[in-house]
Specification:
Layout (H helix, E strand, L loop, with lengths): L10 H13 L7 E2 H7 L6 H11 L11 E2 L12 H12 L4 E2 L2 E2 L1 H4 L11
Helix pairs in contact: 1-3, 2-3
The chain binds a DNA duplex (13 and 13 nucleotides) through helix 2, helix 3 and strand 2.
GO molecular function, one term: catalytic activity
GO biological process, one term: DNA repair
Keywords: DNA damage
Amino acid sequence: MTRVPSKPITAADAYPLIFAVIRRIPRGKVASYAQIAYAAGLPGRARMVGRALADAGGAGPKLPWHRVINAQGRIALPRSSEAYVEQKSRLIAEGVLFEGDRVSFTRYGWKRGSAPVLD
DNA sequence: TTCCTGACAATGC
DNA sequence: AGCATTGCCAGGA
């Protein structure tokens, strides 16, 4: 049979998976791009998660895109952009506090299936 | 098809 | 704690 080396993952295939994962992030929690990619069965495709959100561009109101931040705990957008302010305020509104310009994964990181951190 | 870009990330200094 | 480098992978020109 005509052999196919590996399945080239296209946006059409991946986006639904990615969005599905993002929709599972609980309110008041955050997840990194890499974490979402992994959970969506796309390990190593962190950049694709970013692309998916960029393409969505707020097109999916149901999507809690603001709960997605980079591995450094920072918002992956220019400080000067509108989206940055929007994302930060949304997070704060959910009780996610910033330490300077970053969020603590230890406190707000989404750990699938684990109990909330009560400190 | 090559080259450049990007809501990323791990590593090294 | 930053900053630069390198790896990564899909899109778009």
